């Protein structure tokens, strides 16, 4: 006969042999005791199989849950990098728009400075032309004055 009083390293009951007597020790051993022992062994086997199946299912569910967690962490790690890249891209696009606006403003200011410089150059040229005209007029006036003095002296 077997006893299920001890357990294995998995916490499962293990069948241990009790003192099994030979048929010569007990001539009155009946086939019913043998049948009951076999039924008991089948019952223990079924029970141990169910416990093993339960532990296997529990371990399988635990492994699936941990695999899902690892998967989530990996996705978060990858998405974190993607999100950082997306944020950097948005910042760069903002800076590009800001620089484009600054460039446009500087171009307008440069055009204004060019127009003012051109106007100043034109005024300086006109002053130079006027000065030259004045010199010509002065020369002409001296020539006329000299001619009048020459006529007057004669």
TrEMBL record:
Positions of region (Disordered): 1-33
Domain of life: Eukaryota
GO cellular component: BLOC-1 complex
GO biological process, one term: endosomal transport
Family note: Belongs to the BLOC1S1 family.
Protein name: Biogenesis of lysosome-related organelles complex 1 subunit 1
